[in-house]
Structures are given as C-alpha cells and as structure tokens.
Design brief:
There is one protein chain. The protein is of the alpha/beta class. It is built from 12 helices and 13 strands. The protein has helices at about 60-65, 85-95, 115-130, 160-175, 185-190, 260-265, 290-300, 315-325, 340-345, 355-365, 380-390, 400-410; strands at about 30-35, 45-50, 70-80, 80-85, 100-105, 140-145, 150, 155, 180-185, 205-210, 215-220, 230-240, 245-255. A hairpin with a 3-residue loop joins β3 (about 70-80) and β4. α3 packs parallel to α4 and α7 (about 290-300) runs antiparallel to α10 (about 355-365). It is globular and about 65 Å long. The two termini are about 25 Å apart.
C-alpha cells in the first residue's frame, strides 16, 4: 500500500491524505506505542493491487498465499473512475480459498465535493465482483486515505476535506451494512489534517509503520489504537509472482486479536465486538517491550516492588514480578497473566496520586485518550477515563476499577 511503490493498498476504511504513509512530522499529542514486534502477532495477511502483477503479468496463486496468511485486502478502485484491472479476478480467486477478504478504495479527490461519487464508484465495482460485505469470509470494506503523487512527489491531496471522508464512509456503511475499516497513519493525519483525526474515531483502524522493530504504529489523534498493522511493503510472499520465477513481494500485515475474533468480523460466527471488560487480560512476559511492560513496572512500584519503568521486560522486572507473585501466593513464574494482573491493578479515582495513576495515564494515551502522565488523578484524567469508559460501554463514572483496567490493557 506504499504510495512510493504505487497506489497499491491504502485500505478503504477511513482516512485523509497524509504527506506519506511512511513518514511525516508527528505531533506530541499522538504518542507512538512501543510494544511487541510484528512477529509476535499470529494472525497475518497481505494486501495487493495490480502492482503485484506488473513484474510478470501473471496471476497470484491465492491457494498458496492462503497457506501462510489468514486475510487479504485487495485494491478495487481509486478516485471516481479508476478500477484496478486485476481486482475482479483476484477477488474471485481469493474467495475460493480460506482467506478472509475485502476490497479497498484509494481516496483520490479531484474536487472538494466528490466523496459521494467515489463511494458510488467503489460500491458498484465491489458489488460487480461479488462482494456484499455480509457473506461468510468477507471482512468490512476499506477506505485508504493517504498522500497522492503529484509531479513525482507525495503530497497532501489539495481537495481533501474531512466532510468528504465522512460522506464516503457513511455511504459505504449504508450500502454494505457494515462499518468500514480505515487505512491511514498518524503522520498523515498530523500533516494533512492538522492532527484532527476525530472523523476516524468510530472505525477500526489499519495503520502503517515500517521497519519499526517493536514500535507499533503511532495512535491517530482523536481516533484510537490500531486493529490492523501494515508493518512492511516488501516481504516475500509465496504465491505472489516475482520476476524471473522468483517469489514476489507484497505488503504484509498483522491483526491485533485472535483468529476467532477476525473470523467473527468476517461473518463466520461469534461476535465481532471487543471482548467484554475483564475477559481478556494480555500475557506480558520476559523479552517484551512497550506500554504494557511499563504499566506492569509502574504497578509493581505502586505495590511496593520498586521497578525501573523503562518498558523493557528484563531480568530485574522478571525478578520483581516473581517477588510480587510469591507475596500474593501466586505461581512465581515471572509471567504476568490474568491472575497477576488482577492483583497488580488497583481501583483509582479523582484525588489519587502516584505511579499507579501514571500507569493509568500511559494506558489512556495509548488508547487514544491523551493525557499528561504526571501521576496526579485530576480533572483532566477523570475526563479522559469517562470518555474511555463511554466508548467501551462501561459505566462512565470516572473511576478506574478492574473492568476499566481490563479494557485498557486488552485492546
């Protein structure tokens, strides 16, 4: 989906043109999340367009792709007229495999009022290929919003307006009876939308961040954390044709959840809504990095086991976790699972101070409710907690109890 490579895959879920999917100035209000590397996520997929055929003119072997991937997004349209020449064939072939799939539209405005025309073009093309949005195996449609090419350079679309995106998304949602996904990145929202990403807040996000090690995509201001992560634009994928009979490259992605949850999103049973609060605490263990590790470290300190909050689960953190577990009469394995989480977290409310409050503030920011991590549970933190609780269908009382903590860290 890299713009530099072409207009290959910029998810059709929601977005606005950004200076680039791979770069751009980042605002302090949209912190990047340091956590597990892409390899730690087990549900992987690809996204493709005609560019994955350009080197050879040959079709993709979708049965082979399906052996190592769970899902795929395929470019269907761009602007109000362009249709990807391989979309219909690829969608039909992918639909004959186990791959969960959906089409995406690259938003390319030529006027400030063509949002509806782009939506109608996308809807017609997707339907003509057999996509309905509700068939078993079909994921929600995607809106890809990012920078466009002008005179060999990536720039913000001059005609891009948040209102157009809103019209597009609502029109597509009404047509397919499902909430679209949005593909974009924080730097684009900052550079091309003045950091105002509220238009994306009600949609699952597919965010791009390449070559980042354990650095996850930066949260989109006003929206929230990612659901899909496009972590590279050039991974060799068996089944994708390359020049001279080699294995070709494609964009690679991970899903932030279980395969069962993704299948539920694809109309294959279950419920696609997030797990109920408290139902899914993450497992945090030695070798990991990121905000959940920092949270564990701060909570350990609050519980009397002082630990450096560096976001790295090293030997010192392991020792402190084991000491805490032993004191709580838990299995002292150094791994923070559900039982350890429920003993670590503490109910917090307005007026509280300390490292536990700071842990809460870090989690709020990671979940898109940015607040200063000063360790003071003041009016700003109370407001952010209430906003988070409301979006997760919790009692919006501004008190961070076990259910709120569970929803914060489970993501």
């Amino acid at each position: 989906m890299s713009m530099r490579r072409s207009h290959t895959l910029r998810l059709a879920a929601l977005g606005v043109a950004t200076a680039s999917l791979t770069g751009g100035a980042l605002l302090a209000t949209a912190p990047q999340s340091a956590a597990a590397p892409p390899s730690s996520y087990t549900v992987k997929g690809v996204d493709t367009s005609h560019h994955n055929h350009d080197a050879t003119g040959r079709p993709i072997d979708w049965k082979r792709v399906a052996q190592k991937n769970a899902f795929t997004f395929l470019k269907a349209t761009q602007g109000s007229r362009y249709e990807d020449p391989w979309f219909a064939r690829d969608f039909k072939a992918a639909s004959a495999t186990s791959l969960l799939r959906a089409p995406y539209h690259f938003f390319d405005p030529k006027s400030t009022r063509d949002g509806a025309a782009q939506a109608d073009h996308f809807i017609r093309t997707a339907r003509a290929a057999g996509y309905s949005g509700t068939k078993p195996g079909e994921l929600p449609p995607v809106l890809d919003v990012e920078s466009v090419w002008v005179n060999g350079k990536e720039v913000c679309p001059k005609a891009l307006r948040a209102g157009q995106l809103d019209i597009f998304l609502k029109r597509v949602k009404a047509a397919f009876k499902v909430t679209p996904i949005v593909y974009t990145r924080a730097s684009f929202v900052n550079d091309c939308m003045a950091g105002k990403g509220q238009v994306f807040k009600d949609y699952p996000l597919w965010l791009a961040r390449y070559g980042s090690g354990s650095r996850e995509p930066q949260s989109v201001p006003g929206a929230g954390p990612w659901t899909f992560w496009q972590y590279t634009e050039s991974e060799r994928v068996p089944g994708v044709p390359g020049a001279k009979n080699t294995v070709g490259t494609a964009d690679r992605n991970v899903y932030r959840g279980t395969l069962a949850e993704l299948r539920a999103m694809a109309n294959l049973g279950g419920t696609p809504t997030p797990p109920r609060p408290g139902a899914s605490w993450p497992t945090v263990k030695p070798g990991q990095r990121g905000v959940d590790v920092t949270t564990v470290q701060l909570l350990l300190t609050a519980r009397g086991h002082a630990t450096k909050a560096d976001g790295v689960f090293g030997s010192d953190t392991t020792a402190k976790v084991k000491a805490f577990q032993k004191a709580q009469h838990l299995t002292a394995d150094g791994i923070v699972g559900r039982a350890t989480w429920t003993r670590l977290v503490t109910t917090l409310k307005a007026g509280a101070k300390g490292t536990a409050v700071k842990a809460l503030q870090h989690q709020l920011t990671t979940n898109g409710h940015t607040v200063n991590a000063d360790g003071v549970y003041g009016p700003a933190t109370t407001t952010k907690v209430k906003a988070f609780q409301k979006t997760h269908r919790l009692t919006a009382d501004g008190i961070a109890g076990p259910n709120t903590w569970a929803a914060l860290v489970s993501r």
